[in-house]
Design goal:
single chain, about 190 residues, alpha+beta, five-stranded antiparallel β-sheet, 5 strands, about 15% strand
């Protein structure tokens, strides 16, 4: 049985290689929190398009009409709100940045600001993508399912790794030391956080 578990553990690790690299890079980016890393993407690109909002529509309905008009790539449902000038703004977020549409009602147009993420923010956004995202494009949906699969397979790796360590490596002192150190470390962290 252990021979099969070793193979499954190894191939699951290879399946998770990319996601572990992305998670590790995202952790480094968030830990650094340097302004040039977090906000160092390309300068925003601004454009305008004609748009007339129906006078009887709610803000949410106008937001949906704006989304249908713009069809921002890889973005989910827009975040609708009013800015301090009482203009309707709709933000569309994706792994690669944000598209903000501001309705200029008196002028009958939308002002569209597209801000692309830096590669560092891309890593952070990619690691936070989940299957609860509302994106309709195939790429973010496939990536979110890959993350979901990776999370479950990482739990499988932890369980099989523990089993293999206890059954095949228990006679080595570093196996016992690692097991005890990890258990104590988690217990201390848990106690401190209570």
């Amino acid at each position: 049985m252990n021979a099969w578990l070793i193979k499954l553990h190894m191939y699951t690790g290879l399946l998770n290689f990319t996601i572990l690299c992305v998670f590790g890079m995202a952790g480094l980016v968030v830990t650094a929190e340097a302004p040039d890393i977090m906000h160092g993407g390309a300068q925003p690109v601004t454009s305008t398009v004609p748009f007339q909002a129906p006078t009887s529509a709610s803000d949410q309905e106008v937001g949906e009409l704006i989304q249908a008009r713009l069809q921002p790539r890889h973005a989910g449902k827009g975040n609708v709100r009013r800015n301090p000038r009482h203009q309707l703004e709709v933000d569309f977020y994706s792994v690669n940045g944000r598209v903000r549409a501001t309705l200029l009602e008196t002028e009958g147009k939308l002002e569209i600001e597209t801000r692309r993420s830096s590669i560092w923010r891309f890593f952070d956004n990619a690691h936070a993508t989940t299957i609860q995202e509302t994106a309709t494009d195939w790429a973010p949906m496939a990536w979110s399912w890959y993350i979901e699969l990776a999370i479950w397979s990482l739990m499988f790796m932890a369980l099989t790794g523990t089993w293999l360590g206890l059954t095949t490596r228990w006679n080595y002192w570093w196996t016992k030391a690692s097991f005890v150190a990890g258990t104590i470390g988690f217990a201390v962290f848990y106690m401190v956080q209570k």
